[in-house]
Amino acid sequence: MSESGFTHSYLVEEKICFAKLVNEFLKEETDLPDVVLPLNPENDDLFHSMESGVVLAKLINIAVENTIDFRAMNNKKNLNVYQVKENLNLVINACKGIGLKLPGINPQAFIEKKHHLILAVLWQVMRLCLVKKISLKDCPEIMRLAEEGE
């Protein structure tokens, strides 16, 4: 229960789906020092992987290329709390810069692993990643929608 008396919850299926998507999008990634891929969808690996901001930064760059310059990221093992907060502030500002809505989400939400807030951010980033893959080349069936509208 939160300070306001509300209880936040999420669907386990949502967490499982996002963990599988993270595994798929980052399967070729080798530059994640504190994260072991693939994530186990059945436990809380997804939430732990978001703690330093590095995984989310990688996903943001998949959604919108070159949004985050990784030279500005602290990307090593055993980051201190200040380095983690720098990463998370960079990620949150990048999210806002590409038009995502993040009301009430700050670095502390990731550090404290507030599941519902992490999933809210991930939902928006994953949507961008998935929509980016929609094209006439990859999905020629889309043309039928245009023909039906005439």
Please explain how this structure is put together.
Helix 1 (12-25) packs across helix 6 (115-132) and helix 3 runs parallel beside helix 6 (115-132). The protein is mainly α and 150 residues long. The protein is built from seven helices and no strands. The model has no long low-confidence stretch (mean pLDDT 90). It is globular, with a radius of gyration of 17 Å.
Topology:
Layout: H1 12-25, H2 45-49, H3 54-63, H4 81-97, H5 107-111, H6 115-132, H7 142-148
The CATH homologous superfamily name equals: Calponin-like domain
CATH class: Mainly Alpha
Could you give the order of the helices and strands? HHHHHHH
The coarse silhouette is globular
Give short descriptive properties of this protein:
Actin-binding Protein, T-fimbrin, domain 1, mainly alpha, single chain, 150 residues
